[in-house]
Design brief:
- This protein has an eight-stranded mixed sheet with strand order 8-9-10-11-12-7-13-14, sandwiched between helices. Strands 1-4-6-5 form a four-stranded antiparallel sheet, covered by helices on one side.
- The protein has five helices and 14 strands.
- A hairpin with a 7-residue loop joins β2 and β3 (26-27).
- It is of the alpha+beta class and 250 residues long.
- The protein has helices at 39-48, 83-91, 106-119, 130-138, 195-209, and strands spanning 12-13, 17-18, 26-27, 29-33, 52-54, 57-61, 69-75, 96-101, 144-151, 165-174, 178-186, 214-221, 236-240, 243-247.
- It is 23% helix and 31% strand.
Length: 250
Amino acid sequence: MTNQPVQSPQFFLTAPSPCPYLEGQFERKVFTHLVGEKAPEMNDLLTQGGFRRSQNIAYRPACESCRACVSVRILAEEFKANRSMKRILTRNEDIVSQEFPAEPSSEQYSMFRAYLDARHNEGGMSDMSVLDYAMMVEDTHVPTRIIEYRIFDDENSDEIHQNGRLIAVALSDLMGDGISMVYSYFDPDFSDRSLGTYMILDHIRRAQDRKLPHVYLGYWVAGSRKMDYKTRFLPQDHLMAAGWERFEGH
């Protein structure tokens, strides 16, 4: 009798912890490790099934008394920017973006640190060190990219790096059916540019250029104001009990 290697991933369940989105609720997550040569294929399947990636782990909510977290993906090929989004695109026409392999830099971390201090100083990521940041970027077994967004200003050449001033960064996975936005952040000094929205619009364009149908945004939580922005990019699919269902807005 020969032993066959186990192909299926092993899944684990976390202990309950306070929900970061809904007061009074507790969250649990089911997770597995994304490692080895099958990791890209497994990441595609799990993301399509409502999982998210963090470093070499894929996870999804498995809460006992709540189903508020809904996986969201934009239908990139059908997407049409509304009037507000067109204004944001016009406002940021001076941005130059470039895609790189998933490698961290001190310049990225400096901006990441400023972003956390300004926007998430009490969150679970608030104490992330430069090593933690490097692990977030590098610890991946799937096709992952860093997209840097820069502006150039000749009038302030003494203040701005020769390669342009870094004002936003997105960490994203390339999948067979789309692009999954893992994490994005921006320079808080440029909050008036709506850079979070701009980066999503840029990912929709990147998906369209690659002929990929979806941009995965992670979870939308009804009742959580910090998540409301995700439902503005229409049309989109929501992962419900019976599978992905089209969502056109409220």
